Amino acid sequence: MIRAYKFLMRPTMGQQIALGEMLRDHCSLYNGALQERRDAYRHASKTRVRYGQQSGQLKEIRAFDPERQGRWSFNSQQATLRRLDKAFAAFFRRFRSGETPGYPRFRGVTWFDTVDFPKDGDGCRWNSTPHDPVTHVRFQGVGHVKVNQHRPVVGKVKTVSVKREGKRWYVLLTSEQAKPVPFPATGSVVGIDLGIASFLTTSDGEHIPNPRHGRKATAKLEAAQRALARFPRTRRDKRTKNHQRAVQKVADLHRKVRRRRLDHAHKTALDLIRKHDFIAHEDLKIRNMVKAPAPRPDPGRPGGFLPNGSAAKTGLNRSISDAGWGVFLTILHAKAESAGRGVIAVDPRNTSRTCPQCGHVDKENRPTQEKFHCVACCHTAHADTVGALNVLRAGLVRREALPA
Q1: Is 138 helix (H, G, I), strand (E, B) or coil?
Q2: pLDDT of res. 235
Q3: Which of 363, 365, 390, 362 is nearest to 380 (CA)?
Q4: Is the pLDDT of residue 311 over 70?
Q5: Which domain covers residue 41, as residue numbers?
């Protein structure tokens, strides 16, 4: 299996400058390749330029500009061109399927934050000084950079990436590992119901509170964004020091919320994995759940619209995004695979309307957000616990139906 690692780097001031120049030059290569594709399609009878053609021009580009392009890894530059090729492939895929295409855009210097090295040892070397107690990673054109390795890397390192997040630099690794040793069996199975009032509720009746990291940081974010908005357009174009500090403040607050949300998701998922051998959850279509409501034209007033509940839906969408269900489920599946646990997603329809005692399905079974009262057998329970029980039963049925 493939496992990913992320470590904080401790570059010197000179190495930070070199890393910034590496990002800038790869960004220039990305934008130049994008411009070539646009020009070929517009002015050469809709000719499409492929990755192989652009990769074949790299030697000439490096020879023509040795100061900016020739000093970096050839392998990493190919990876940058592959990134552009994947962006175009995704664009055409969305176009053919009828989705909003999203044509690939030019990247600003502050938008291009990652450089990939597809092979360890070609332009980069992880732990290049193995006899040194301090871990290093070596990048071509940068040198040996200290790494804060907070846990050991298991397996053979396959790819290396360098990433900038604000003022910090990180190295990302992927390693190929043998089949992991599974956690000891507990004999326990559980279903989980994700929500807003509680982050999740288990079929055992346990409620994990929703931390609401985004809501807690709302006041600070609003103050920072108001400070950023005070800069007029003319000053914003000049990129003054005060404007840069205001931008950095907003970015740091968003980054802090993101780290807290990830930390909560990792700890909650690990706790479930340690306690249970099998976990069932709802197969939520989160992208559809956070869509804005369609406008309602007013037939009696041309050009006017009727109320469509967009204000309330906006608040609900913000709460769903703040909970981070998608991130949590991704982490849960990854940890389950690594621990040898089973995780299955089931159809979420009517899970909170079905009575676990008699099986009666009715929307009147849930009179309030928290209360469940079956109109057929008068069974009463917490609505989220009922939903988790039904999710568990559906998951067990699906597990039995799946081939071994």
Answers
A1: strand
A2: 55
A3: 365
A4: yes
A5: 2-176
